[in-house]
């Protein structure tokens, strides 16, 4: 296993080599929980992006001809390497992102390995078709890789989102230029170090830097056959526009304001855990977070009282400390955004039932910690019920019946996640089917395993990840039409 120590400085990873930015520019990576300096990373230029694309184009000439079996073997090897270095990668992820070690070691890293294994298996099962359209005409359908794909991933799940993007693209036979967030570049750079010699040169290229610089350079580069993006809906629009301008496909996994719905017959202990899991997991910095909590009027008062008690008991602390349940927000700007929305809630007439402030005691003064926050007396038309806060802040809204909660849940520009808590399976299915969202959980929340399609309706995105359907998103379909008749058509006789 590698040592826990990070490098002092990381270059760009282009054509299987580490190199500085073409102009020597760098930026600092900082631990959001402590404010401590972690490492220096290269700030890529437009020229660097072009070099990465050219390396990927060159690599594609041979990578596209590898067999599904060969690519599956490599994907499984990547998974083995992740598993062998899981403790190291989990610690790096927690230091760079601020999330508790229990999450990175229990979810982010092992699930990333599993995604590579899943797509290693999926590519082995992908089949074309041979169909006789009539007695003389055979239609062959084949799947071919697209080419070079540009991928931009967010700061909330840096390693896992990299796995979600890399695994299907590699499986399909594409080559990649990927850009992590400038706030959380270290885990994927460490992965690249671990993968030295596993992938042919140029198949995987990593560009680091600000979204406003190298991110835009990726969007503007003409050499991509596809763009893939996970992040905010606002930036997602610019990615979609860039892809449309080049007439190439794009998959987008964007924002959300998901409904977490509790009926009177819910399993109480399960429901309470699901409330916390829905909004406090990863400090609420989750695109499908259960940020709108709909509670039936008959249990509303009991629910709020129990929820406040549970929220106040959550152990917030330094990510690497034992027993910590919730860590740091990503940076000071995110803290300001969250606290700004709490002020908006007050002005809109809502009540801060608990939390609502920055935590600065018990060694947290140098970090970016927000107390778990529950807001009551909320109506569905308030800004805090409609806009994505992206923090440990849930708004609680009372409902009367199924029709009432379905209507309110669907009164949103988003449609990514959501859940229903009830022991009535018929009700669960009715509500789950009626909500306009890409995924509904029943009696659980934030389960994101490989093998189940994840993606959004409405402004929450285009495409589905974590499922073999992604192989179609990273491939193009070739049709070969064969005439097996030896007779002419007689059209020109």
């Amino acid at each position: 296993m590698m040592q826990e120590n990070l490098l002092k400085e990381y270059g760009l990873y282009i054509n299987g080599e580490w190199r500085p930015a073409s102009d020597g520019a760098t930026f600092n990576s900082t631990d959001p929980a402590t404010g401590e300096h972690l490492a220096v990373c290269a700030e890529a230029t437009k020229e660097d992006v072009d070099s990465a694309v050219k390396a990927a184009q060159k690599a594609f000439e041979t990578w596209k001809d590898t067999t599904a079996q060969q690519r599956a073997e490599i994907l499984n090897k990547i998974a083995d390497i992740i598993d062998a270095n899981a403790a190291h990668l989990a610690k790096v992820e927690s230091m760079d992102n601020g999330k508790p070690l229990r999450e990175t070691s229990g979810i982010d890293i092992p699930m990333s390995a599993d995604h590579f294994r899943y797509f290693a298996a999926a590519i082995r099962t992908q089949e074309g078709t041979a169909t006789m359209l009539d007695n003389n005409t055979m239609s062959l359908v084949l799947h071919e890789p697209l080419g070079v794909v540009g991928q931009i991933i967010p700061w909330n799940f840096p390693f896992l989102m990299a796995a979600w993007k890399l695994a299907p693209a590699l499986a399909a036979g594409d080559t990649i230029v990927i850009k992590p967030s400038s706030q959380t570049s270290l885990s994927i750079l460490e992965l690249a170090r671990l993968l030295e010699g596993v992938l042919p040169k140029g198949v995987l290229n990593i560009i680091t830097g600000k979204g406003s610089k190298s991110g835009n350079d990726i969007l503007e580069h003409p050499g991509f056959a596809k763009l893939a993006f996970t992040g905010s809906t606002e930036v997602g629009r610019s990615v979609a526009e860039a892809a449309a301008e080049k007439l190439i496909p794009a998959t987008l996994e964007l924002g959300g304001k998901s409904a977490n719905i509790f009926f009177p017959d819910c399993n109480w202990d399960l429901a309470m855990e699901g409330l916390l899991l829905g909004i406090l997991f990863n400090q609420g910095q989750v695109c499908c977070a259960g940020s709108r909590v709909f509670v039936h009027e008959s249990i509303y008062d009991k629910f709020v009282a129990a929820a406040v008690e549970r929220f106040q008991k959550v152990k917030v602390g330094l990510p690497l400390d034992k027993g910590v349940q919730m860590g740091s927000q990503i940076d000071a700007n995110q803290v300001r955004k969250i606290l700004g929305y709490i002020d908006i809630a007050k002005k809109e007439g809502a009540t801060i039932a608990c939390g609502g402030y920055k935590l600065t005691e018990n060694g947290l003064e140098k970090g970016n910690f927000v107390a778990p926050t529950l807001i009551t007396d909320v109506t569905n038309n308030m800004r805090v019920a409609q806009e994505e806060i992206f923090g440990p802040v849930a708004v609680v809204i009372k409902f009367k019946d199924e029709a009432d909660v379905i209507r309110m849940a669907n009164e949103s520009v988003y449609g990514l996640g959501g859940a229903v808590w009830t022991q009535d399976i018929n009700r669960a299915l009715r509500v789950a089917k009626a909500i306009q969202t890409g995924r509904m959980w029943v009696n659980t929340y934030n389960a994101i395993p490989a093998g189940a399609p994840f993606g959004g309706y409405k402004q929450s995105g285009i495409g589905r990840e974590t499922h073999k359907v992604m192989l179609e998103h990273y491939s193009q379909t070739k049709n070969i039409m064969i005439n097996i008749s030896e007779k002419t058509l007689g059209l020109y006789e």
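The two ends are 75 Å apart (CA to CA). The chain has 15 helices and 25 strands.
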